[in-house]
Design goal:
With 194 residues, the protein is mainly beta. The protein has 1 helix and 10 strands, in the order ββββββββββα. The protein has one helix at residues 163-188; strands at 3-18, 24-39, 47-57, 66-76, 82-92, 95-96, 106-109, 114-124, 128-140, 151-160. Strands 5, 6, 7, 9 and 10 form a 5-stranded antiparallel beta sheet that branches. Strands 3-4-8 form a 3-stranded antiparallel beta sheet, with no helix packed on it. The protein has a two-stranded antiparallel sheet with strand order 1-2. The chain is elongated. The N and C termini lie far apart (97 Å).
């Protein structure tokens, strides 16, 4: 199959010896070396972002800032080992939140390999519908400068609303209205029919 493959060479040497009680034992010593090789043929560098999810944790203050947590997995779906730079952005209709996040580069992924990530945006004010994007710019391993490398982008949307705080506020308002109505009924007394 064309593309990059990983393997290993193991050298083993068995020696005879004796243990602390004088019994004969065979000691097998091994040394391994990792190797990478490329099988000639068409090369298809490709990365895919899967499982992209974003969630928002608001503060107790309805107007206070919260946190967006982003989870995603990057898979090497091609046949060439690749690394990549990562960039995450969060924005709503009014503009971008926080500075863009540029986590550490993706580790070198062999074909079929994957890596999972969790990143966070702090100090995110509530702003309604928010869009989160993850962008990858692939890097080739040494000796692969002749490849056309992929750029990948994926996005998801979420509501950045302080739901717990809003629900608490709604309950307080509803309770206050109910209390005011009950108090008003007591003052006016029961209706009398003429």
């Amino acid at each position: 199959m064309p593309g990059d493959h990983a393997g290993g060479i193991v050298a083993s040497v068995a020696t005879q010896g004796r243990d602390a009680r004088g019994d004969r034992v065979t000691v097998d010593e091994r040394v391994g070396a990792r190797i990478y090789l490329r099988v000639a043929g068409p090369l298809h560098p490709a990365l895919t972002i899967t499982g992209l999810r974003a969630s928002y944790q608001g503060s107790a203050n309805p107007l206070g800032a919260g946190r967006i947590t982003v989870d995603y997995t990057v898979r090497n779906t091609g046949n060439v080992q690749l690394s990549a730079s990562q960039l995450l952005r969060a924005s709503n209709p009014f503009g971008s939140y926080s500075p863009a996040r540029a986590p550490a580069d993706l580790p070198l992924l062999l074909p079929g390999g994957s890596a999972a990530f969790t990143e966070e945006f702090d100090h995110v004010p509530p702003g309604g519908l928010t869009h989160v994007t993850v962008s990858l710019t692939a890097h080739a391993a040494a000796g692969q400068r002749d490849l056309t490398l992929p750029s990948v982008r994926s996005g998801t949307s979420l509501w950045t609303m302080p739901w717990v705080a809003l629900a608490t506020t709604a309950c307080v308002v509803a309770g206050s209205v109910a209390w005011a109505l009950r108090r008003r009924r007591r003052r006016t007394g029961p209706r009398q029919n003429a």
